[in-house]
Amino acid sequence: MTFDQILCERRDDVLLITLNRPDKLNAWTPLMTVELVDAIEAADAEPEIGAIVVTGAGRGFCAGADISAVFAAQIGGDADAAMPNAARDWVELVRSCKPIVAAVNGPVVGIGLSMILPFDRIVVAEGAKLSMRFVKMGVVPELASSMFLPLRCGWGAAADLMLSGRTISAEEALGLRLADEVVAPHAVVEVAIERARSYGENPAPSLRWIKELLTQNANETDTMAAQRREGRLLMKAYATPEHHAAVAGFLDRRKK
Length: 256
What we know:
46% of the residues lie in helices and 15% in strands. The protein contains eleven helices and nine strands. Strand 1 and strand 2 (14-19) form a beta hairpin. The chain is globular, with a radius of gyration of 19 Å. It has two domains: 6-200, 2-enoyl-CoA Hydratase, Chain A, domain 1 (Alpha-Beta Complex); 204-255. Helix 5 (145-153) crosses helix 6 (155-164) and helix 9 packs antiparallel against helix 10. The protein is α/β, with parallel strands linked by helices.
């Protein structure tokens, strides 16, 4: 499968996807999302791939929407310029696919940031800059980022970042819990791959069900409803060969 705006590379059991418009700091276009969806769906269907990492080519991760290809085109009358037109909803795909980790190698702005907020982990390079700049462009955030940002950072921090549109350092992002870890620039991709691999090596059914529970229960106010979802999936897990093998392995180790 070949793409125009992304690259795909197998790193053993991890698929590394690279946003590939380095001359424009990987600025987002609708085509980029279409290609990302196709690549993630293909990885999701490949049994030998356990997890996915997304990074950027060159010195940036994603500088936000391509102004000429998106905003200027919209103002000029192209109402669909900012619409991904992908086969799947982005957030639904990210929250239901195999574990997915962001390796933020440089500046990440606007939609570049909002599209990774639902990821399972965000690894950021030292020196990277992050910004929810939507307000500076006279627009509002998307991709459910007004839900995911407060989940990551809390209400006050999320409101500050969205209402100000200010740019923050990797270190401040870590303090706000927007970044899950900050590492040396040369190590960001390898660290993200190792984190992804540590998730993907676990039983695939459990991984999907845990992601489903996190998605559905993170904002749940009814503890009984949360437990019912857990109970339903726990019964499914009890019946899996992965669970049976884990129990048998534990019992065998105890006998030795």
